[in-house]
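Risk register update: the risk of archive-format incompatibility is retired. Evidence:
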Amino acid sequence: MFGQMSLDFFIERSFSYEDFVERTPKNRERLAQVYSSVNIPDDMKQQIKEIKAKILMLVFAENWCSDTVLTLPIFFKLSELNENINLVIIPRDDYIEEFKEHFLTDGKAKIPLVLFLLDKSEEIHRFIERTKYVDDEVKRIKANNLEKREIYRSVIQFYLSSKTIEQTTKELACELIKVELLARSAMN
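Archived output:
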């Protein structure tokens, strides 16, 4: 891991969801489309509303990234359910050297990277890039030996489908519920 000074460095430079979206016009419509399509199942909604721990989701992301366009609006909508959950975003490319120093995954600077922090200081969980459902489908699309442009078009079409948004919402809600359980363990 890394020290509190490093976490503070990123937290102090973070943006709200709204400010991050406004920073650049790229994919603004897609972010809005995903956000407006999110429907959180009632049972998960209730569990998230009952989270007691103060959780900060520190997200490294970029608007040009398709995985960010799918997951970030969902995480934001989930955070709106509970005032104990705060979401802030660091534009990864603005701090690429610092990111590479602390957060490479398998030697790559994958985004979005979500650090779930307890009381803004203790990392208790990470979410990296995409859900299993999405990862499996992206691998399937890429295995079809399509041209790069067709792969991109197919992935975007898949990402913006109601089924993908629904399944991703469920998987990301489970991530947040898991974080609550981890927070309880950390506090005991």
